[in-house]
Amino acid sequence: MPGAGEIDQKIAAHPPRLIVYDARELSAWDSSLISFLFELGEFVREHKIEQDRSGLPAGVQRLLALAESVPERKAARTDTVSAMFIDRVGASTIAYAASFADFLGFLGSLSIAFGRMLSGRARFRGSDLFEALQQCGANALVIVALISYLVGVILAFMGAVQLQQFGASIYVADLVGIGMVRDMGAMMTAIIMAGRTGAAFAAQLGTMKVTQETDALTTMGISPMEFLVLPRTIALVMMMPLLCLYSDLIGIMGGASVGAGVLNLSLTVYLKETIAALTLGGFLGGLVKSAVYGALIAVAGCWRGFQCARSSSAVGDAATEAVVTGIVMIVAACGIFAVLFHILGI
Amino acid sequence: MVPGKESTIRTESVPKPGAPHIEVRNLTMAFGNFVLMRELSFNIRHGDVFIIMGASGCGKSTLLNHMIGLNEPATGEILYDGFDFTGAGPVSRERMLRRFGVLYQSGALWSSMTLAENVALPLGEFTDLSRSEIRNLASLKLALVGLRGFEDHYPSEISGGMQKRAGLARAIALDPEALFLDEPSAGLDPLSSRLLDDLILQLRDSLGATVVVVSHELASIFTIGNNSVFLDVDSGTQIAVGDPKYLRDHSGDPRVRKFLTRDGSAAPEKIDGQAR
What we know:
The structure holds two protein chains of two kinds. Chain A is mainly alpha-helical. Chain A contains twelve helices and two strands. Chain A has a two-stranded parallel ribbon with strand order 1-2. Chain A is elongated, with a radius of gyration of 32 Å. The relative contact order of chain A is 0.11. By secondary structure, chain B is an alpha/beta fold. Chain B has a domain at 110-175. Chain B has eleven helices and ten strands. In chain B, strand 4 and strand 5 (83-84) form a beta hairpin.
């Protein structure tokens, strides 16, 4: 069967007054016939050519009548004209700026919610906070331990390759200890939690938005910001330093196992060297960092969750965006901390 | 509280005296540059069961969302007992919201809480009742919608119709003055839908609340509604206001009569021809 376009051209070249269909030899037909006749019908009407469909099978006639019964709603067609490159750049820049303004708005309402909590007026349930604490505290211990141990091992091997050449293998203890405590402990915990908890927050809040559960809170006079975001943020900010401390310890153990098992250092010597290398400032710096990372992860997760559109695919997007935003913010904050600590001499 | 409720309500079509409970004035609903509906104006009296009707996708639920403050109007205002709701500050708006009960299309029960906790949450937040009193009240509200014994079930463990009823129990937890129901009978079988209609009328009578219902189910519209607004997507505004039974029999607008008598399905061209 020729495409409707070809026929259109032929007809347009020599426009007849009447088109008659003859389907006497047609034994079977499917939707492609209807589609062809439907398009042809549009074309014929536009060119004011009459058509006689009485030769078509009755079923075809009925389906065509049904398809043509409601005229096309012109407003329903969206503009599919492909925008120019520069238009698209402009549009996405504007969208980016709007999303930044939205983020600031989110931070603003979160600050207000915190203010209300400090004055004891915020509405959220203690059991929700407890659940969030368990979710992003105890439940994360295993994965944090695994990753931290491996990071400790990797750091130790990386250092050992160079330090062994100078016969200074013992300094692997310094390298692993300082590295874990000042940066890697907080950083690795944060990245695990961004993938684990940040995504979970975004998916939870996004789904609640899809099912109108957040609307139900709003119309009940309960702020979703207080009821949903506050407990999650508090839980993550409280748990992150604890997880970071735990990660530091496990990381050092990872380094020690390389020191004892591969570099033939005595465990006591290794630990003594580690203790001598660490400073309280380094420890506290790492803990402060982890608390800040916790806040960033919670904010990124909850913000992306609230931004979620009302469809199930949007929930997936929100979770992805939450992880991406969270990790970008963590790395950016890590850079800022590095400069800041350098200036402050910590 | 009110004996013989059904018979008195169903025949009621005469306007009651007194000030309107809800006034919508010159409301225009828009998303960005796209105007969905413009110049909507109607009054809802105390104790009305007011139906927002119209074809699918014409903005019925959006109108409801405007009335409960989830969407902000492009222009126009909504008043409750003469107080401006759309222009109210956050504090007075929160106070007004507390007198509303809303049943969402999907039920929108909080999935991390049991049914009793769902109903108890507003009671715990906004009343000074003790824990045991709240628990008893929550059980009572659930019993009112026929869910006695389901207190400790989670929303995912019960059927769609039960979720709707539990949503209704939550909506009436604070004895609201205005009850908003978004397609309460959608997705229910005819019998459950009929039971829900009876329940809505009984609750209206016992609570004395004004009920606003989004619906396009004719049976339900005629059973419970005594006032309505008809939204038309082609003209982008309301084309009829009044008792749906009166509109069915006497409306001068053939689009309204066709919708209400289910006559429209056979001849959509004709409807459209008159709309232009």
